[in-house]
Design goal:
354 residues; alpha/beta; seven-stranded mixed beta sheet; three-stranded antiparallel beta sheet
C-alpha cells in the first residue's frame, strides 16, 4: 500500500513537472503576443473608444481578420490584458473588450517601448548564444550575434535600434524615478547640481527637476546619445566618457549603468564619481538591482535573476549584484559608508558617501 502511494505521488510530480515544462516550451508566446498587440495599436484603439469597444468595431479600426483578432484577444484576456463582456446592439450579441491596468501599460506612454525592445530581432538574437557565452569567456553572445562588435558599437551603427533602446530606457527611467521620488524624496534634499551619468535622453532628470525645481540637472552620456537627446528645461546635456571623467556636482546619479560592467570597470567609474563630488557633503546615488537570495527573495527576485541572464547574454562582464557584491565595489572605490533603500521596483537606491 505504501509503495503504491509513493508511486502515485511520484506520478503526480512527473505530471506537474511535464505541465510546467510545457509552459516553458512556449514561454516566448507572451512577449510575441504583446509585441503584436502594441504593433497593431490595440490599446490605443480601445482607449480612443472610451476604454471599451466591440469586436466588429475593433476589427474594422485595426483592419484585422475578426477571427484572428478574436483569438489574439482571447489570449490577452487569459493573461489579464483586457476584460471580455458581451453587449447587445440591434438585438444582436457581440463580444466587447475593455481596458485593464495591464492593457493600459501597452500604451505608448506605458511600457510599450520596453516590450518592443525586448521582443525585437536585434535583442532576441544574443539569447541564442547564451550557452556559448557560458562556455567561452572571452567573447560575449552579443558580439557573436552582431558580427564581432559589442552591443554599444552595434547600437551606434544602427540608429533605429539606438532609438528603440533609448525609448525603452526612458520608459524604465520614468517608472523608477517616480517611485524613488515618491518613496524617498529626502534622497534629493540639499542637492543643487545633480549629474546623471549614463542618463540617456534625459528622461530621469526631466522628471526629477520638475519634482525638485531647486536642482540643476546635468545629463552626461556618450556624444552619440547626447546628440539625440531632446531639450529639457533645467537640464544641461553634456557629452563625454565616464571612464575618463565625470562632471562635478553635489551628487552623482547612476541608474541601470553599473550592471552593464564588470567590477574593474565599475570601480573606475565610481572613483571618477568620487572625484566629482565635494568630500564633505557629496554623495553618489545608485539606482540598480540588488539581487536577494534565499529567505530575502521577494516578488521582484525573479525579475532580477532574469535581468542577470540578460547581462550574461548581452554584456561581456555585466551582471546584477547582491548586497555583498555592491559592498565590495563601494569599498574598493573608496566610499566609507552607504545605505540601501528598497523601492519595490526593479531598482533599489544605494546612497554612497566619501
Amino acid at each position: 500500500m505504501e509503495a503504491k502511494m509513493k508511486s502515485q505521488a511520484h506520478q503526480k510530480e512527473e505530471e506537474a513537472a511535464r505541465l510546467e515544462t510545457w509552459k516553458y516550451a512556449f514561454a516566448f508566446a507572451p512577449i510575441a503576443v504583446l509585441k503584436c498587440a502594441i504593433e497593431l495599436q490595440i490599446s490605443e484603439t480601445v482607449e480612443r473608444h472610451g476604454g471599451s469597444i466591440m469586436l466588429p468595431e475593433l476589427s474594422t479600426a485595426l483592419r484585422c481578420s475578426p477571427s484572428a483578432l478574436h483569438r489574439i484577444m482571447r489570449y490577452l484576456i487569459h493573461h489579464g490584458f483586457f476584460k471580455q463582456t458581451r453587449m447587445i446592439r440591434d438585438q444582436e450579441s457581440s463580444v466587447c473588450y475593455t481596458q485593464t491596468p495591464r492593457s493600459r501599460l501597452l500604451l505608448k506612454d506605458g511600457m510599450a517601448a520596453l516590450i518592443l525592445l525586448e521582443s525585437s530581432p536585434e535583442t532576441l538574437g544574443p539569447w541564442h548564444g547564451l550557452s556559448r557565452r557560458a562556455l567561452v569567456n572571452d567573447d560575449s553572445a552579443s558580439e557573436a550575434s552582431h558580427g564581432g562588435v559589442d552591443s554599444w558599437e552595434h547600437a551606434e551603427a544602427n540608429p533605429d535600434q539606438t532609438k528603440l533602446f533609448n525609448d525603452a530606457m526612458a520608459c524604465h527611467a520614468k517608472v523608477a524615478m517616480l517611485a524613488i521620488i515618491k518613496q524617498y524624496p529626502e534622497v534629493f534634499e540639499g542637492i543643487r547640481t545633480l549629474v546623471d551619468v549614463g542618463g540617456g535622453d534625459g528622461t530621469a532628470l526631466n522628471i526629477l527637476v520638475k519634482a525638485c525645481p531647486w536642482i540643476r540637472g546635468v545629463n552626461y552620456d556618450r556624444p552619440p546619445v547626447i546628440s539625440m537627446a531632446p531639450r529639457h528645461e533645467g537640464v544641461e546635456h553634456v557629452g563625454g566618457d565616464m571612464f575618463e571623467m565625470v562632471p562635478k556636482g553635489d551628487a552623482i546619479f547612476l541608474m541601470w549603468v553599473l550592471h552593464n560592467w564588470g567590477d574593474e570597470e565599475c570601480i573606475r567609474i565610481l572613483r571618477n564619481c568620487m572625484d566629482a563630488i565635494p568630500k564633505d557633503k557629496g554623495k553618489v546615488i545608485i539606482a540598480d538591482a540588488v539581487v536577494k537570495e534565499g529567505e530575502g527573495e521577494d516578488e521582484y527576485s525573479k525579475i532580477h535573476l532574469a535581468l542577470d541572464m540578460v547581462m550574461i547574454s548581452f554584456m561581456e562582464k555585466g551582471k546584477e549584484r547582491t548586497s555583498k557584491e555592491w559592498e565590495y565595489l563601494l569599498n574598493e572605490a573608496g566610499f566609507t559608508k552607504y545605505t540601501v533603500k528598497d523601492t519595490k521596483t526593479t531598482v533599489s537606491v544605494i546612497e554612497a558617501y566619501p
